[in-house]
Amino acid sequence: MGFATHLGPWLLGTVRNTTGTTVGTMENCGATVVSQTFKKNYTGQAASATTDTVCVLPAGAQILDINIDTTIAFTGSTAANVSIGDGTTAALYWAATDVTSAGRADISNAAAKLGAWCGAASTASPTGIGIGSTDVKIIATMTPTVAAVTAGTVQYTIVYTVADSTGLQFPASA
Hints:
Elements: E1 11-12, E2 30-31, E3 33-41, E4 50-57, E5 62-75, E6 79-85, E7 94-98, E8 103-104, H1 114-118, E9 136-145, E10 151-161
Antiparallel strand pairs: 1-2, 3-10, 4-9, 5-8, 5-10, 6-7, 6-9
């Protein structure tokens, strides 16, 4: 099985541009949802912060979800606090959350971060749609407390839609 690459969004649907007001003549194209995953074994990490690149999102992407799954529960350290950011702001997309226990981290802190996910509160082009007009590195900062980690693995998955390089979610031209 091979890999395929594609520049720009995939537009899916039977009607690309609205030419009327009834179903079948109104635009129904949408961008596909994609994801990138990064898994990190933190075994042996000292009780100090470490930063890893999770992925790089293409210009204009809109984050739809962030999954932080602890696949091996942490031992040794009393807490394992992780935040997700862009390399400039450590917690831009996800505020510090303890992920010591196995399972998926609660997304309860995401409401305050949604503006950064979709660009609504940013200077992203155009008018705050997407993460911006340049690619963005997504980082995870892990900070164990008290003691070194004797076991602990986390899998990060960023789910997003791809837009074109101007930030438009549904480009008007090919």
